[in-house]
Amino acid sequence: MNGTSRALALAAAMLLLGAAGALAQAAPPVETPQADKPVNEAPPPYEPQLLRLSEVMGALAYLRDLCGARDGDAFRAKMAALLDVEAKTDARKERLAGAFNRGFEGYALTYRICTPAAHEVIARFLDEAAHISKDLANRYGG
């Protein structure tokens, strides 16, 4: 399985398994020697979807903890796993991590307590993440 297929399969598995996820069961990423990493890599065609998925995971990391699910660390770990597989350059890592941080910080500014609206946002983001993951796996998973 190539790196793209592995990344998409990882993204799909992480979010389809639900909020608690089973990241600990995922295989560790294969380390690539520094000399083999591309310096100026063009973003893949699925970059917009990965950026959105990263932003949604950031929002979920904040909101799920705020509303008592206590699984924000699981979303941080999922994001770290996505970065391990997908971030072949520092610029790409910054874009993906930046999207996660925007999602987290945007909702941290908006929500100080858990509300019914926060629960609705969580439900919608879980659905959106599952949809993005399925779409990525179906289109690019090989």
Provide the domain count. 1
What radius of gyration results from the CA coordinates?
15 Å
Low-confidence stretches: 15-30
Proportion of beta-strand residues: under 5%
What structural class do helix, strand and pairing data support? mainly alpha
Order of helices and strands: HHHHH
Helical residues, percent:
55-70%
Largest sheet features: none
* Count of DSSP H/I helices: 5
Q: For the residues shown, what is the average pLDDT?
A: 81
Envelope shape: globular
Total strands: 0
Distance between the termini: 8 Å
Quick overview of this protein structure:
The protein has 142 residues and is mostly helical.
Task: Give an overview in words.
The chain starts with a helix and ends with a helix. Helix content is 67%, strand content 0%. With 142 residues, the chain is mainly alpha-helical. The chain has one domain.
Blueprint (SSEs and pairs):
Elements (H helix, E strand, L loop, with lengths): L2 H14 L30 H20 L5 H15 L3 H21 L5 H25 L2
Helix pairs in contact: 1-3, 1-5, 2-3, 2-4, 2-5
Record keyword descriptors for this entry.
single chain, 142 residues, mainly alpha, 5 helices, 0% strand
